[in-house]
Amino acid sequence: MAQIENITVLGSGSFGTALANVLADNGHNVLLWGRDRGVIAAINGEHFNPKYLKGTPLNSNIKATAELSLAFTHSDTLICAIPAQKIRSVLTQHQAELPTKTIINTAKGIEVGTQLLVSEIFAQLSPKSPYAILSGPSFAAEVAQRLPTAITAASQTTGLAEKVQALFNNRYFRVYAGHDVRGVELAGSLKNVIAIGSGVVTGLKLGYNAQAAIINRGVAEMARLAQKMKADPMTFLGLAGMGDLVLTCTGPLSRNRTVGVLLGEGKPLADIEKQLGGVAEGVYTAESAYVLSQQLGVEMPITEQTYKILYQGQKCSKALEELMARDPKSEWA
Fold this sequence. Notes:
The protein is an alpha/beta fold and 333 residues long. Helix content is 50%, strand content 12%. An eight-stranded mixed β-sheet has the order 3-2-1-4-5-6-7-8, with helices on both faces. The N and C termini lie far apart (46 Å).
């Protein structure tokens, strides 16, 4: 067990709250920041998150605040659980303070417009901050319920991945250490796009064979992009890759899979967003990943068809037809 530390978690959504709970269970002094003052009041007064983890009791030692300045003064270790598309706008407010902070990021996504990974966003905001990515198969609800979970921490800063292990490891939460930051981030981002495609297959009632094909060929195109971007393709066989992909493509708690299921059933994206109470991260990443694949000349047919469904009005049945009609390929080409 690591020595007791003051730790700030930025983002009071489901995963930020669940990670705050793990850290509090480990005895750390945790301050959780979020914008929703109703959620903040409930965490402080009743020790649960009524919006994102309804019905799950939280460690009573978690403190919460809606004041970002307080969150920054609480600790030099920031757990970033802010959605990827919001990181720049939130943290620019305190950019001058970032060089004194260690960043442990959990957000999964590629920034729309810039096509930057989260590590690259932080490299722009604060190039001297030590940085780690924490990612893997981990539904927030199950983490908060203290069900067994294993994920990966990757950092190129000496000793930081091991520090993340020490902060989080306990009887129900296990962290493995690595160094392939880019690979882990790409895997965590791209799997959400493939999960939408997998959901479409389910919504169209195309069977388990088709779903297995989407998952496996999804790994192939994710690894092709990773190799082009100088990441380690082997990362995609690990927890952050295949582990997270299988969970997100098959688990009923997956928001991205749910988007795909509802698309496959014929529901418009706008109605799906209303039903879910927001946009799943894979919807944004589908655009960023498609643009990135075009810029780098990487063939990503599942990503391309998912993008067309989301942004060009492509019918789900037509997307399937185009995927199945592609020219014959070698499996390992």
